[in-house]
Every structure is written in structure tokens, then in C-alpha cells.
């Protein structure tokens, strides 16, 4: 079977108080491209309940989905009872979600939510990767699509979402899995002795600059997340033309400081770290481009 094409789309934050938490993002250059609730035709209507999703975007194709409790499905409610507010999953768009079920399972993933068709919006399911992080798979059907924002830096600091960071227990194994199974390729490799940071990009990287980063924990805040949750989707990654000002603006917007912008040799750039209201890490680094 030919491997399906997996395109990085969004991460999803489960947040106890999303309407309050959202203000930090809105004060920090973000926009709301879509808000879905259970009154929206076809959207996630199941026997278990309705939805409340707000998408957030900032100048790039990678978006965040902020989801409000009590959560639609029992498997989601179980996760929230165990982990609380945090990043629940990363979502990938594929041409055919049903074919992808077998593809991921044959590669060692398990299924958290079985394949389901949501009327004229999308088909999808949720898998769990080989270290326990959640992978949502979506296939758009009909004309439905979560709207994009303009793909250009926002504000005088030139802020853009870039992607997501996942903390790994066995970095080499996870890099191999995401490359071989999800068709990612390495665009930046800063590993030694199975520790460090690896930037991965999907097949659209030349047009849609976004990345998924696999890393071992380095900051105390990263070790704390991993100790609490195991291998975890830890961080939202940004690039900015003016990192110092973007960082100061984030603090003014309500994000908690972790470490002010400084040279980070693992990433090879000036990088600052913050914490957002749900407890996840926000990483802002200088703008630089890898070869497309
Ligand atoms: Fe999602």
C-alpha cells in the first residue's frame, strides 16, 4: 500500500476556561478564523453530544483549536480527567481517512476514536502514536474547510505560527516513525546521542511553511511536563522578526515568563520561552528558513 500524504494542520488545546484563556492569544496578534458549535449543520453531531471549538491563527497555516469542556466523547473526557488542561492532539489532513486507519495501525499506532463520518464536513478518527501522543486524522469532504488566515507575518513584530513541539522518550525511534509512517522529512537535525531537537516538514513545506518538531526535554519546564504526562505535545512554536518585542508583548498579553530570549544552541537562534494559560509552553524564535 502506498503511504498516504499527511499534511500538518492544527493542534488542539483542552482548556477548562477557554473563553478566559483565549484573551491572551487575542491580545498577542492572533485571530479567530472559525468558531464551531453544535448548532452548525453536520459538524460533529453524534449521540454523545455537541462541540465547542474556537480556532486561533496568527499569520501562518498552522492553527490552534481551543476546545471547551465537557468534551464530546467519553474517550476525550477520560483524557481530560487524567491530564487536565493541555494540548490533547495534533491534527493531520489526509486524502482518504479510512485508508489511513489501516496504515497507522499496521505501523504500531492504536485507535482512540474509531473512524466516523461527520455529514458534509469531514471524515476522521483519532489514533495514538507509539509513545502515547494523540494523532487526529481528518479528510475534508464536500466544500467544507476550516478557513485560513493570510500567510504573512502579523504586526510590527512579524509574528507567525510555525508549528508544534512534541517531547519524546526515544527521539531516534520517533523521528524514524514520523518520517517513515507520516512521510515527514528532516529539515533541521540537532541530535547527539539520541537527545536534542529535530525539525520535520511535510510535503507542502515549500508553500505552507510549518513544521512539527520532535525533541527531548531540556528546560525544567519541559522535564516537568514530561514527568507529569509522559511523552507529550508540549509547545506551540512561533517565529518572529523581532523576538525581543514579540516576547515582551506576550508577557503584557498575560503569558507567563519561562526564559527571556537568548541564544539557544539546540535551535541555532535567539529563542524565548513562555507559558500559556493551559500550561503549555510557547516558544518564540528568530525567523530563519530551511531549504524547501
Ligand atoms: Fe482537532
Indicate the proportion of strand residues: 35-45%
Please tell me the CATH architecture of the largest domain by its name: Roll
Annotation, overall tally of beta strands: 16
Order of helices and strands: EHEEEHEHEEEEHEEEHEHEEE
Name of the level-1 CATH class of the largest domain: Alpha Beta
Oligomer: single chain
User: Considering DSSP H and I runs of 4 or more, what fraction of the residues is helical?
Assistant: 10-25%
Question: Bound compounds, please?
Answer: fe (ii) ion
Number of domains: 2
Q: Which structural class best describes the helix and strand composition? A: alpha+beta
* Distance from first to last alpha carbon: 27 Å
**Overall average pLDDT:** 93
Radius of gyration: 18 Å
Major sheet: 8 strands, mixed
Shape: globular
Uncertain runs: none
- Looking across the biggest beta sheet, what order are the strands in? 2-3-4-1-5-8-7-6
Characterize the structure shown:
This protein has 292 residues and is of the alpha+beta class. It has 2 domains: 7-140, 2,3-Dihydroxybiphenyl 1,2-Dioxygenase, domain 1; 159-286, 2,3-Dihydroxybiphenyl 1,2-Dioxygenase, domain 1, CATH 3.10.180.10. The chain contains 6 helices and 16 strands. Strand 6 (110-118) and strand 7 (122-128) form a beta hairpin. The mean pLDDT is 93. The protein binds fe (ii) ion (FE2). Fe (ii) ion (FE2) is lined by residues 10, 12, 65, 89, 91, 136.
Descriptive keywords:
single chain; 292 residues; alpha+beta; 2,3-Dihydroxybiphenyl 1,2-Dioxygenase, domain 1; 2 domains; 8-stranded mixed sheet; binds fe (ii) ion
Amino acid at each position: 500500500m502506498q503511504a498516504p500524504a499527511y499534511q500538518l494542520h492544527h493542534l488542539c488545546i483542552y482548556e477548562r476556561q477557554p473563553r478566559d484563556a483565549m484573551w491572551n492569544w487575542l491580545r498577542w496578534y492572533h485571530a479567530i478564523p472559525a468558531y464551531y458549535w453544535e448548532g452548525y449543520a453536520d459538524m460533529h453531531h453524534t449521540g454523545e453530544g455537541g462541540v465547542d471549538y474556537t480556532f486561533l491563527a496568527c499569520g501562518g497555516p498552522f492553527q490552534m483549536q481551543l476546545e471547551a469542556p465537557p468534551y464530546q466523547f467519553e474517550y476525550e473526557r477520560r483524557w481530560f480527567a487524567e491530564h487536565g488542561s493541555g494540548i490533547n492532539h495534533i491534527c493531520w489532513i489526509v486524502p482518504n481517512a479510512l485508508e489511513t486507519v489501516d496504515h497507522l495501525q499496521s505501523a504500531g499506532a492504536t485507535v482512540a476514536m474509531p473512524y466516523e463520518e461527520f455529514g458534509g464536513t469531514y471524515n476522521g478518527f483519532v489514533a495514538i502514536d507509539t509513545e502515547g501522543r494523540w494523532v487526529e486524522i481528518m479528510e475534508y469532504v464536500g466544500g467544507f474547510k476550516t478557513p485560513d488566515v493570510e500567510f504573512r507575518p502579523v504586526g510590527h513584530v512579524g509574528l507567525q505560527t510555525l508549528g508544534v513541539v512534541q517531547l519524546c522518550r526515544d527521539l531516534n525511534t520517533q523521528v524514524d516513525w514520523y518520517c517513515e509512517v507520516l512521510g515527514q522529512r528532516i529539515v533541521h537535525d540537532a541530535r547527539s546521542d539520541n537527545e536534542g531537537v529535530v525539525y520535520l516538514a511535510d510535503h507542502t513545506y515549500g508553500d505552507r511553511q510549518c513544521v512539527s518538531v520532535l525533541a527531548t526535554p531540556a528546560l525544567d519546564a519541559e522535564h516537568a511536563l514530561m514527568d507529569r504526562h509522559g511523552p507529550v505535545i508540549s509547545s506551540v512554536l512561533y517565529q518572529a522578526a523581532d523576538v525581543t518585542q514579540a516576547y515582551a508583548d506576550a508577557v503584557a498579553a498575560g503569558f507567563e515568563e519561562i526564559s527571556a530570549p537568548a541564544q539557544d544552541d539546540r535551535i541555532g537562534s535567539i529563542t524565548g520561552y513562555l507559558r500559556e494559560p493551559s500550561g503549555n509552553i510557547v516558544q518564540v524564535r528568530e525567523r530563519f528558513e530551511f531549504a524547501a
